[in-house]
TrEMBL record:
Gene Ontology biological-process entries: cell wall organization; peptidoglycan-protein cross-linking; regulation of cell shape
L,D-TPase catalytic domain residues: 234-365
Alphabetized GO MF terms: acyltransferase activity; peptidoglycan L,D-transpeptidase activity
Active site residues of this protein: H314, C333
Gene Ontology, cellular component aspect: extracellular region
Domain of life (superkingdom): Bacteria
Keyword Lipoprotein: yes
Pathway(s) of this molecule: Cell wall biogenesis; peptidoglycan biosynthesis; Glycan biosynthesis
The protein's name: Lipoprotein
Organism this protein belongs to: Streptomyces laurentii
Length: 390
């Protein structure tokens, strides 16, 4: 009996030597009682608590002896950083740059081959730049503009990494259309579709420039969005030879207006031009555009800018009514008959001004001048689509 009792005790204490295996040891990786540590090792760069971290290229999460299953990175306000785990699960990197002067928290989980999890939590702070730039943009938020209006952004510092800056700007349209950017020099970036915008389109621009290193040691500091709406389609065609302008609204010519374009010695540019500014009355001084003291008119009525070099379509009260439709007399502008003071709404210039939007297109043809340069004003439509995208 003593021997039988001893055997019974030994069998009870042996536990799991056979049967269904539910009593397996802790190192087997199965069962709720498994306390063996995960073999997966999570590493985060930069180190926990790091300061003055670069906004691009510094953040990376990796896993050894396992695969990443979860990675979340967020700033102190809870805004998440987009990123992607690699196909093999070995690493994670952000898909965009980080903001400057910002504290981020990282939470990462990896699983080993047996499904056991290993987690790591760290935090770091990005650098505070000494030198910054911003983008000054047109059109304005909430503005209704014509079908020719591009998104034009001029940077306060010359950009030496245009790809990084352009990646940080997103322009979308509703209804959707392919939109491409084009750089003019190192400080101006314009966006447009292949053809004029469709009437009624809503365009949204997201500037995620905060933290972008646009040139060595110089970082963007903007993070904002704005939108604008395309109004009705109005394209006006100036025929400098015939001395007329046909105003077309939504596919229908609504008026033909006699004009006076540039004189033979000071011809008007040909090409597609976009109205960029409107002034009910403004001063025009020839000395500011290379014509010395040839003219200084302090009250030019109903003036709309077509180029940055000084081409306008505007009212003319000082010329005889007989010149409109019969003679080209200006210093390169397109003149319409008008009254001094811009107070007579019945004149052709007032009529056109009242029915025009910033962003409307004015096409000049049959002038004895060259085609306007695409960066002279908002006039990128004078480039082919293939050249624009190049």
């Amino acid at each position: 009996m003593a021997t039988g009792t001893l055997l019974l005790v030994l069998t009870a204490c042996g536990g799991g030597g056979g049967g269904d295996g539910k009593g397996a040891g802790a190192g087997s990786g199965s069962g709720k009682g498994d306390t063996t540590a995960s073999q997966a090792v999570v590493a985060v760069a930069p180190a926990d608590g790091a300061d003055a971290v670069a906004t691009s290229g510094a953040l990376k999460v990796t896993a050894q002896k396992g695969k990443l299953s979860t990675v979340t990175v967020a700033d102190s306000e809870g805004h998440a950083v987009d990123g992607k785990i690699s196909a093999d699960g070995a690493s994670w990197e952000p898909t965009a740059h980080l903001s400057a002067g910002t504290k981020y928290k990282v939470h990462a989980i990896a699983k080993d081959a047996d499904g056991r999890e290993s987690a790591k939590d760290t935090s770091f702070t990005t650098l505070v730049p000494k030198n910054t730039f911003v983008g000054q943009y047109t059109p304005e938020n909430g503005q209704t503009v014509g079908v020719g209006m591009p998104v034009s952004i001029r940077f306060t510092r010359g950009i030496t990494d245009p790809e990084a800056v352009e990646r940080a700007i997103k322009v979308t349209a509703e209804p959707a259309v392919d939109i491409e950017g084009h750089w003019f020099g190192n400080d101006r970036l314009d966006f447009r579709p292949e053809d004029y915008w469709a009437a009624g389109t809503k365009v949204t621009v997201k500037l995620n420039l905060d933290g972008v290193e646009g040139r060595p040691g110089v970082y963007g500091k903007q993070k904002k969005s704005f939108s604008f709406t395309i109004g009705r389609r109005q394209v006006s065609t100036v025929d400098a030879g015939a001395k007329t302008m046909k105003v077309e609204r939504d596919g229908k010519v609504i008026r033909t207006i006699p004009i006076s374009a540039g004189a033979p010695s000071t011809t008007t540019y040909n090409g597609q031009m976009v109205i960029s500014e409107k002034y009910k009355v403004t001063r025009m001084n020839g000395a500011t555009v290379g014509f010395g003291g040839e003219y200084d008119i302090k009250d030019v009525p109903h003036a709309m800018r077509l180029s940055s070099s000084g081409t306008f379509i505007h009212g003319n009260y000082w010329g005889s009514s007989s010149i409109f439709g019969s003679q080209n007399t200006s210093h390169g502008c397109v003149g319409l008959r008008d009254a001094r003071g811009a107070g007579d709404s019945s004149t052709p210039a007032a009529w056109f001004y009242d029915r025009s939007l910033v962003g409307d297109v004015v096409v000049v043809k049959n002038s004895r001048d060259k085609q306007i340069a695409p960066d002279n004003g908002l006039n990128g439509w004078n480039m082919s689509w293939s050249a624009w995208k190049a």
